[in-house]
Amino acid sequence: MSRPRRSVLYVPASNERALAKIATLSCDAVILDLEDAVAPSEKPAARERLAAFMKSRTERDDETEIAIRINPLSGEWGAEDLKLAGALEPDAILLPKVDTPRDMLEVGDALDEASVPHSVKLWAMIETPRALLNIGAIAELGRDAASRLACLVAGSNDIAKETGIRTGPDRRYLIPLLLQIVVAARAGGLAALDGVVNDFRDGERLARECAEAAAIGFDGKTLIHPGQIAAANEAFTPSKDMLDDARAIVAAFARPENTGKGVIALSGRMIERLHLAEAETLLAKAAMIEGRDE
User: Other C-beta atoms within 10 Å of 270: how many?
Assistant: First the structure.
């Protein structure tokens, strides 16, 4: 089972104070951003600060998963970003503006040629209409370990901008596209992360979107402010009722009289072995989260 990614915080690589605070945060992962959060004039300095931060990390820091978002390879900064990110060997490199499987394969080939270990995975930003049209083929790369693809990240702001979808108090018109990302991720054996809430002071909207994202199958939510971490962690952590039900299912199938049965009755419900598998997965996830939060 992959590590928890309930809360994934974007941190500008140009912001030394923000980088220094990462060790004190309760988020499961951070995305050190060289792209949108960094002004063009600050790109070179951001690379230097990123390199210094990564080289200063200790073994105790390894609990927080680290991804580096580079600039698009089609632009003037992308190639140098990728070279640096590969050399720093983070847990993952996040590629923006992914449109086709070829975009992922070319980066994977470049990392292989540079002898970057396969422990460095690739995450793909899904933020364009072309990406959504090609998402099945992109996600299918997750079935091939050599591709390095491990996660799809929804770029909901860009999706709305590029499609013209209006996002008001809710995301009713965006949800069908977000569901495509979740379904594709599951087909490819990948993690899936929801997009950000821009107004970090709107706690009500954040809680609503986190609950919504958890309900439609996302593994976690990307965030832009440390104040959003607690809400995401709560929404994507299995509740006590969910865990009690999972334990009851596992215990019921473990009874001698149920050995070998494909379907059993439990509290007025018919429970199949697929529900047992779901329960075991949920309990394993909860155990990982408990270990992370200790």
Answer: 9
- Contacts (Cβ under 8 Å, ≥6 apart) of 49: 13, 14, 15, 16, 19
Tokens 């440390």: give the residue: 226
Half-sphere exposure of 84 (CA within 13 A, CB side): 28
Report how many helices (DSSP H) and strands (DSSP E) the chain contains, helices first.
12, 10
Burial of 204 (0-12, 13-18, 19+ CB in 10 A): exposed
Let me know if 240 is exposed, middle or buried by CB neighbors in 10 A (0-12, 13-18, 19+): exposed
DSSP 144: -
- Please calculate the CA angle 75-64-221 and round it to the nearest 5 degrees: 65
Sequence letter at residue 221: K
Strands 263-266 and 269-272: antiparallel
Amino acid at the residue 187? A
Gyration radius of the chain's alpha carbons: 20
CB 33 within 8 A of CB 12: yes
**Per-10-residue mean pLDDT, the chain, length 294:** 90 96 95 95 96 84 89 95 97 97 97 97 98 98 96 97 90 96 97 95 94 97 97 95 94 92 92 93 89 71
CA nearest to 47, candidates 7, 79, 1, 95: 79
Count the Cβ atoms, other than its own, within 10 Å of residue 161: 13
| pLDDT (0 to 100) of residue 221 | 98
Asked whether the CA dihedral 67, 73, 78, 84 is positive or negative, the reply is: positive
Give the length of the chain: 294
149: part of which helix (H) or strand (E)? strand 149-154
Residue 269: strand pairing partners: 266
